[in-house]
Amino acid sequence: MASPAEPAGPRAWAGLSVLVVGVGVSGLAAARALLARGARVRVVDAGDTERHRAAAADLRALGATVVLGGLPAGPGGAGLVVTSPGVPPTAPLITGSAAAGVPVWGEVELAWRWRGATRWLAVTGTNGKTTTTEMLGAMLAAGGRRAITAGNIGTPIVEAVAAEPPYDTLAVELSSFQLHYTHTVAPLAAAVLNVAPDHLDWHGGAQAYAEAKARIWRDPATIAIGNADDAASARLLAGAPGRRVLFGRDPAARPAPGLTVEAGHLVDHAFGGGRLVAVRDLRVTGPHLISNALAAAALARAEGVDPAAIGAALAEFRAGAHRNAEVAVIDGVRWVDDSKATNPHAAAASLAGYPSVVWIAGGLNKGLAFDELVRDARGVLRGAVLIGRCADEIAVALARHAPDVPVERAAGMDDAVRAAAALARAGDTVLLAPAAASMDMFRDYAARGDLFAEAVRAREG
Q1: Average pLDDT over every residue of 201-226
Q2: pTM
Q3: Pseudo-torsion of CA 46, 49, 53, 54, nearest 10°?
Q4: Is 195 helix (H, G, I), strand (E, B) or coil?
Q5: Binding site for ATP: residue ranges?
Q6: What is the DSSP letter of 61?
Q7: Residues 387-423: pLDDT tens digits?
Q8: Which fold has domain 112-316?
């Protein structure tokens, strides 16, 4: 039998003992794919809820052994461990497997070994990954590729690489967790959009977090695409071993970005595409969304997509739900849902897109500071409505850096919308950009955004 450390066809997996960690989306997909290739699969998960038990029943019906309610301290005789990206590298199972010499992969690494001739274009960053990947997917489709978005967005990658007929190209969104558990993944081209402190408890520090992002272009064969407007992304790009391409909104920046904005147009100098689309023709607004468009265009041009197809895709593209989505305009006040802004870096990008904002913020902090965010945004803040567990932390930052900004507290989303309406005047934008996670009050960021939209539409009605 072939070693799992080497690429192998479907038959080579027959009889191989594999331990799959987690019954979430990626774990389920990996376990099913391994079972379909004849592997002997044991699945473990620390959880034991109704959802976990339902997933376990499905896997047992396919022939897997499943144990819920805890994780073992080692691989237990398995020749390969395929882990959920949520399991930190310090978990005893992960360290125990490494000590035993057993490879630990994520679902992304498994899919890469099985990719066949499918090309990968990859996107990572602290913020903007999903929007950029969706833009890229639209460009690939407009360019005539059989393509799909996969990874941290939409379809699990092990399912995407098994499609028949095969996809030409995958637009792959990858988180730092997923990248940590990759070893040989080498996309045709890969972009690091930005790097700001996030998930530091999982990675053990800012340096390890940045290094995980940089794994996306570790191979010299990968065209590395970095952001000239983000110092951390540009620093990482300087260490990329392959071809390096910068994108950025300022054409006068040095070194000059290969994809930028000139005379009101997105232009491509790096791959010879010239003018791609007029900024006035885009349906997305805000500097960060222009950056996302430039990054997606760089990836598409690296794959050879025609400039006209890129321009047409961008002219039709609308950002997904909860990403700077306009909910309503009521009495001259614009209401915008950016519930996806779950950290200060994302909220800062969102606030920068509007001249006068009543800001709804707060939630479950991930150990991050709010001072820089408030200091940079104070010029556009008309008022703030704070919710959630970290409301006091944001209030302290506002008192320190923007003491003249009126601050209200709210117990829930309906209350927050009422308070924001009282602060807002015609010409203002009420912006839900929480700068924090949602789980202290809501199921997830989507539920938070949905409740915001419901409360706003109730006022409109």
Answers
A1: 86
A2: 0.82
A3: -130
A4: coil
A5: 125-131
A6: H
A7: 999 999 999 999 999 999 999 999 999 999 999 999 9
A8: UDP-N-acetylmuramoyl-L-alanine:D-glutamate ligase (3.40.1190)
